[in-house]
Amino acid sequence: MGDETTGSLTPESWIMAGFRALAAGGPAAIKVEALAREIGATKGSFYWHFKDAAALKGAMLAAWKQAATEEVIAATAQQDDAESRLMALMAMAAAEPGPQWAGRLAEPAIRDWARYEPAVKAFVETIDRQREAYVAQLFQELGADEARARTLGALLYAAYVGRSHMDRLAGEAGAELADFAGALIKSVQAGLSPQTGQLP
To answer: Among 189, 149, 136, which Cα is nearest to 200's?
Structure first.
């Protein structure tokens, strides 16, 4: 056996190739033979790490959850206060993923994937609830009551998802997210309701 067959490529090599294929051609593009060609490997290398394409897809979702949710929450939790955590969260949300993840196309591609596979849809919905709950928790720590914190969390998370679908999470879009987060923070600090339209 050659090195490729015995696993010189890591599982992450195949996972990242899966994301690039997903962004370029949708879930139907996640095929072992095509991925092997893209990274210059043999199919034997793939089967060294994964039982089948379904196992790779599961690993892709787990990697996305780890990198784009759990690690982000853990990193922002290191900040000293809720306002700093929320602004750090917006900065990380606005940062473009590396090219190995297919850049800013990764998250919209995952959400599009959820349209075709019920298990992926359920997974994405779970991630959305986890993220939105974390944002709401930060607004509650800032002083909003529970109901209002949920509303503010939903508003800010919807803005993030919208920006990702507009394919502009880097650059100006990042500034827009930060500005919106800052306005919502000020509304909490000023005791104003976001429904009044009287954001400072």
So the answer is: 189
Reading the block at residue 133, the tokens are: 């709950």
Mean model confidence pLDDT for the chain: 85
User: In sequence order, what DSSP letters do the residues of 45-104 get, joined into one string?
Assistant: HHHHH-SSHHHHHHHHHHHHHIIIIIHHHHHHTTSSSHHHHHHHHHHHHHSPPPGGGTGG
Q: What phi and psi values does residue 62 have, to the nearest 5 degrees?
A: -65, -40
Q: What is the pLDDT of residues 15-55, one digit of tens each?
A: 999 999 999 999 999 999 999 999 999 898 899 999 999 99
This prediction's pTM: 0.82
3-state class (DSSP) for residue 7: coil
Tell me which residue has tokens 């759990």. Answer: 70
CA distances to 13, 17, 19, 64 from 9, rounded to whole Å, are 6, 11, 16, 19
Rounded Cα gap, residues 23 and 20, in angstroms: 5
